[in-house]
Amino acid sequence: MIIEGGQRLIGEIRVGGAKNAALPLLLAALLTDEEVILHNVPDLRDVTTVEKLLESLGVAITRKGSDAVINARGLNAIEAPYDLVKTMRASVLVMGPLLSRRLESKVSLPGGCAIGTRPINLHLNGFEALGAKISLEHGDIHAKAKKLKGAAIDFPIPTVTGTENLMMAACLAKGETVIENAAREPEVVELGRFINAMGGDISGLGTRTLTIRGVSELHGAEYSIMPDRVEAATYMAAAGVTQGNILLKGVPVASLKAVIDKLVEAGMEIKEENGNTRCLMIGPVRNVDVKTMPYPGFPTDMQAQLMAMMCFATGLSVISETVFENRFMHVGELKRMGADIHVEGHSAIIRGKGGLSGAPVMATDLRASASLVIAGLAAHGTTEISRIYHLDRGYEKMEEKLQSAGAVIRRVRE
Ligand code: UD1
């Protein structure tokens, strides 16, 4: 991706369907033999990976634009192939629904974004509590049960995909499952609503305690996926660093309170306009401190983008990452662009110098890539970002959306 920095972003950008909701919802289609219709499914590499994963299990999928029709009647396997799992950690979400339907599932230890060690012990403990036996053989995790029975599960820390996996494993189990310290992210709520639309019985969505009453079967459903809050927030930050004026369409505003509060503190004006969201920046970026937290706190998936923005402020900002270890890979690349950032344990101290200069940089993970795009859009000169395939995992047609708002950005083949 080659970006000529310094253009103000002015125009309209439409936000697509949420990646982190689309992935579990597509996999939840495994929970029924009936047809599931999903609308607003984003066109992303991670979504394609899940579709391939479902097809490898015998599931039929038809895509037409942002609609997906899924039918799992032909489900004939319990194993997620390694070549798919290794590219996307969220493939582990196949375990819950397969355990539900087949009482057995097998996946390789997941790869994906290289942020911290990212274990799945909490998912596995939860499956065990529901009655599954877990074994590790030849790099595969094998879960098998005679039957699944409701249980009390208390997470020591909230886990998003862990909560989702257990919701899917428990929704057809016998009896009631109570998950304490459940993740409250909007995408978890979205999955719960979808399972309920299929005839499931999950209550407490959006709170720390989820109660899942097992039902004997689920039926087909039609559902429109919520818009992507991280994509929306990324374009907000892009407007912020470029002194831009963007009308964002389809923003899940309620889910972005923590982010919008910070962007406003950083000098942006963000307000509702006829159902859309006006994102305006007049004047310099102001330095702010941020600490990432589980929802409703400031999302770790916006940490890198906010750090890029802080490089354009003048003065100190401290960004603390409390959700993941080792999620500062973008720091080295931002430094290549002239940033003054010092990492100390879980915190990055950014001494904003009011700008950056374009440089060749390398994308290391999905959100780190987005932070480099933000940096490049406002930097002096040309920024060349390689390994841009990370971006395609989570941002739909990013360069086209930015071009439509006046950015000088293009993709070239390496
Ligand atoms: C999900 C999101 C990801 C986001 C993250 C945090 C998807 C597909 N991905 O990832 O974009 O950055 O939530 O909002 O929705 N942990 C354990 N053991 C486990 C599970 C998690 O120790 O079994 C730890 C993790 O290492 C991490 C913390 O719990 O430190 C939170 O991780 P988790 O919420 O599970 O993140 P993901 O579900 O992987």
**Lateral strand order in the biggest sheet:** 21-22-1-23
Overall morphology: globular
Distance between the termini: 9 Å
Helix content: 25-40%
What count of helical segments does DSSP give? 14
What is the CATH class of the largest domain? Alpha Beta
Looking at CATH, the homologous superfamily of the largest domain is: Enolpyruvate transferase domain
Average per-residue pLDDT, rounded, comes to 95
Assess the beta-strand content as a share of residues: 25-35%
Poorly predicted regions: none
- The radius of gyration over CA amounts to 21 Å
List cofactors, ions and other ligands. Answer: uridine-diphosphate-N-acetylglucosamine
* SS-derived structural category: alpha+beta
Question: In terms of topology, how is this protein built?
Answer:
Layout: E1 2-4, E2 10-14, H1 19-28, E3 35-39, H2 45-56, E4 60-64, E5 67-71, H3 82-85, H4 95-102, E6 104-108, H5 121-129, E7 133-137, E8 140-144, E9 152-154, H6 160-170, E10 176-180, H7 186-197, E11 201-203, E12 210-213, E13 221-224, H8 229-241, E14 245-249, H9 257-265, E15 268-273, E16 276-281, E17 290-291, H10 303-310, E18 314-320, H11 329-336, E19 341-344, E20 347-353, E21 360-362, H12 366-378, E22 382-386, H13 389-392, H14 398-404, E23 408-410
Parallel strand pairs: 2-14, 3-13, 9-10, 17-18, 21-22
Antiparallel strand pairs: 1-22, 1-23, 3-5, 4-5, 6-8, 7-8, 10-12, 11-12, 14-16, 15-16, 18-20, 19-20
Helix pairs in contact: 1-2, 1-7, 4-6, 5-6, 6-7, 8-12, 10-12, 11-12
The structure holds uridine-diphosphate-N-acetylglucosamine.
